[in-house]
């Protein structure tokens, strides 16, 4: 049944958090480890935690948050974590090195993390302010109450990061940053996403892989034991990326970590050949299950209309098929593409109700749907990001920048034609320029956008910060719009 966590004798003495235990799928209901606590915060409690976290901006101000922690980070996502892992694994063969991917899963999703560890971490970082002290005060004197047939039963709450908590991820990341900040030897890489940690170890020899892996795991174990965190050996494994017949023996303490041909990391199956075929096959099975469910609520001549079917495909099926495409979409093979096309064709027929002999290309034209990756845009293309370091600033008429290097763009349409141009200025002189002529049917807006695009491409090759000036406000507004329908944007 539901539990209640409250506090007494401090600022949040009147706050009460309802914690509901939900059984994990496929687990025994009688086993206590089969349940995960979910926090249901009241409005007042959520507002308090949100306000404290907004003021608790030390991570950005002092840059304490480690860049290899990808959970609950601005401009970071699981796609970034996957892309970083795959890029490191692909570098191994190019450098003629053997590589090992070790996946470690913290048991209970930091459920055993002690409150004392959180306070010690604050103390080690010298984080003392009114907001940090208030945030830490929410951890003191916590009690858990369970209603019984006789009376409520109370006991002290001294550990855990229940899901649904606003401050839970922040506390968890602060503790995880301690192990991420360790100076690892060359050939050892560690990154984290929530309770999933991934080691990538590279070396020229099998024995070198074993020694580096042992060194890395021993340090990780010391940190885990200090914070009373436990690694789930059943969910932890490693994959060898090498032509070695006999791989290294990798142990967690005295227990050997199982070697597999593929493992699942952040929902993506990474195999030992980086072929991505096991992942696509698994996602195809999930999509087929969803297809069978859809067939129950609509057929060719009955049920939900075509617009709803197309919307379900875009918001559910396509996300299933393209999960993690940022990591594997650029390594598409004809076999993977055929597998994805065959799955998509079933849904195209389901949406249109067309004959089975209808070509797939025609079905895509009718529905307006694109093929699966690599032509399908990833989430990074759909969300505005400051990581590109492109900032927009208005300036007055006849403005001329200082002697620093800058690019000025312009596009126009006259009776003589349509064109785009940009000039690179430094020390008040033009050092480079480019002119482009467009078709007469192109608009002035398209010319302005093309000029900005050419300037960005030129700036990216300079490998230094540079300002780009334009007099087209409509172009800037289109660039800022994450839902812009202009393909060139």
Short description:
The chain is of the alpha+beta class and 489 residues long. It has 15 helices and 17 strands. The longest helix is centred in the middle third of the chain and has 21 residues, at 206-226.
Number of domains: 3
Low-confidence stretches: 1-14, 375-398
User: For the terminal residues, how far apart are their CA atoms?
Assistant: 52 Å
Largest sheet: 5 strands, antiparallel
β content, as a range? 15-25%
Q: How many runs of DSSP E, i.e. beta strands?
A: 17
Helix content: 25-40%
> Mind telling me the C-alpha Rg?
28 Å
Mean pLDDT: 79
- Please give the count of helices: 15
Question: Can you describe this structure?
Answer:
By secondary structure, the chain is α+β, with helices and mostly antiparallel strands. The protein has three domains: 17-271, no CATH class; 277-367, no CATH class; 406-480, Ribonuclease H-like superfamily/Ribonuclease H (Nucleotidyltransferase, domain 5, 2-Layer Sandwich), CATH 3.30.420.10. It is built from 15 helices and 17 strands. It has helices at residues 43-55, 58-61, 78-94, 115-124, 130-137, 168-180, 206-226, 277-297, 306-321, 325-328, 334-352, 360-367, 379-382, 444-460, 473-480, and strands at 3-7, 16-23, 35-40, 98-105, 142-147, 152-156, 188-193, 196-203, 237-241, 251-252, 255-256, 262-265, 268-271, 406-414, 417-426, 429-438, 467-469. Strands 3-2-1-5-6 form a five-stranded antiparallel beta sheet, with no helix packed on it. Helix 1 runs antiparallel to helix 5, helix 8 packs parallel to helix 11 and helix 9 (306-321) runs antiparallel to helix 11.
């Amino acid at each position: 049944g539901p539990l209640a966590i409250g506090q007494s004798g401090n600022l949040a003495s009147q706050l009460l958090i309802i914690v509901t235990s939900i059984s994990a799928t496929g687990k025994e209901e009688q086993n206590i480890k089969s349940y995960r606590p979910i926090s249901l915060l009241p409005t007042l409690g959520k507002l308090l935690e949100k306000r404290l976290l907004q003021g608790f901006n030390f991570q950005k101000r002092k840059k304490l948050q480690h860049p290899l922690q990808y959970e609950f980070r601005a401009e970071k996502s699981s796609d970034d974590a996957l892309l970083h892992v795959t890029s490191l694994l692909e570098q191994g063969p190019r450098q003629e090195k053997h590589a090992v991917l070790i996946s470690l899963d913290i048991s209970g999703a930091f459920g055993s993390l002690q409150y004392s560890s959180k306070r010690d971490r604050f103390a080690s970082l010298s984080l003392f302010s009114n907001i940090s002290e208030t945030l830490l005060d929410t951890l003191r004197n916590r009690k858990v109450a369970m209603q019984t047939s006789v009376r409520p039963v109370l006991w002290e709450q001294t550990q855990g990061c229940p899901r649904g908590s606003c401050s839970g991820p922040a506390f968890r990341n602060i503790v995880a940053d301690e192990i991420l900040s360790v100076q690892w030897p060359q050939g050892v890489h560690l990154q984290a996403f929530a309770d999933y940690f991934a080691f990538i170890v590279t070396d020229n020899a099998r024995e070198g892989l074993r020694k580096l892996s042992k060194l890395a795991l021993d340090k990780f174990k010391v940190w885990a034991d200090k914070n009373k965190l436990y690694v789930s050996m059943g969910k932890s494994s490693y994959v060898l990326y090498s032509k070695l017949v006999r791989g290294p023996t990798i142990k967690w303490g005295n227990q050997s970590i199982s070697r597999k041909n593929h493992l699942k990391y952040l929902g993506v199956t990474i195999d030992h050949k980086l072929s991505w075929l096991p992942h696509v096959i698994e996602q195809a099975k999930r999509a087929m299950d969803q297809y069978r469910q859809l067939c129950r609520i609509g057929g060719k001549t009955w049920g939900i209309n075509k617009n709803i079917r197309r919307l379900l495909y875009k918001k559910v099926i396509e996300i299933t098929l393209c999960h993690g495409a940022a990591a594997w979409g650029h390594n598409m093979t004809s076999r993977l593409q055929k597998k994805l096309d065959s799955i998509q064709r079933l849904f195209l027929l389901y949406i249109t109700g067309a004959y089975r002999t209808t070509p797939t290309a025609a079905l895509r034209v009718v529905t307006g749907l694109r093929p699966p990756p690599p032509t399908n845009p990833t989430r990074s293309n759909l969300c505005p990001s400051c990581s590109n370091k492109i900032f927009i600033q208005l300036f007055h008429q006849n403005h001329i920048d200082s002697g620093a290097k800058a690019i000025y763009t312009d596009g126009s349409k006259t009776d003589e034609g349509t064109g785009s141009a940009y000039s690179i200025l430094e020390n008040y002189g033009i050092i480079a320029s480019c002119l482009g002529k467009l078709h007469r049917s192109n608009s002035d807006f398209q010319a302005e956008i093309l000029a900005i695009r050419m300037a960005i491409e030129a700036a990216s090759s300079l490998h230094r910060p540079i300002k780009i000036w334009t007099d087209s406000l409509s172009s800037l507004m289109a660039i800022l719009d994450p839902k812009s329908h202009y393909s060139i944007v």
